[in-house]
Design brief:
single chain; mainly beta; hypothetical protein yedk fold; 7-stranded mixed sheet; 3-stranded antiparallel sheet; about 10% helix; globular
């Protein structure tokens, strides 16, 4: 199992991972925190949907949305992984999801979205060893919005203690 929030191997403190739950596609090749993982330690993070929150106009509240493929099938986010070794020799395996500019559907909800890879891109993304950065960067684009759907869901999703099938069921927006 991997902990969400990338901990670079050179980090002195594993708490840095709390701030690295997402990695911006535009700066992966330059940022020291992600550069080596981008070149050598790429992974797929499987999902069947994800949440984003949309600001409710003239309000301090945000409406959660569930976003998935129209066919409801699972898909894979582009991810990176690392192994951090503590001074006592114990290891923490960590990962992060790569985000990019949103497609037209997600842009109506949020200003970023996870990079979803097409099945055809899996082999290149997972290929062992260094890969040319330009080849990899071409994969980090918004997924086609015509293959996705988004709908409002219950604010119960805001509580980490709540884990129920109702969290991905559409609600009527009042």
């Amino acid at each position: 199992m991997y902990r969400w929030g990338l901990i670079p191997s050179w980090s002195k403190d594993p708490s840095i991972g709390d701030r690295m739950i997402n990695a911006r596609a535009e700066s992966l090749a330059e940022k020291p925190s992600f550069r080596n993982a981008f070149r050598r330690r790429r992974c797929l993070i499987l999902a069947d949907g994800f949440y984003e929150w949309k600001q409710v106009p003239e309000s301090k509240t945000k409406q959660p949305f569930y976003i998935r493929m129209k066919d409801s099938l699972p898909f894979a986010f582009a991810g990176l992984w690392e192994i951090w070794v503590s001074p006592d020799g114990s290891e923490i395996r960590s990962c992060t999801i790569i985000t990019a500019q949103p497609n037209e559907l997600v842009a109506t909800i949020h200003n970023r979205m996870p990079v979803i890879l097409s099945e055809e891109a899996y082999d290149l993304w997972l290929a062992f060893g260094d890969k040319p950065v330009d080849q990899l960067e071409k994969l980090l684009v918004p997924y086609p919005d015509n293959e996705m759907q988004a709908f409002p869901v219950s604010p119960m999703v805001n509580s980490p203690q709540t884990d129920a099938p109702e969290l991905i069921k559409p609600i009527q927006n009042e």
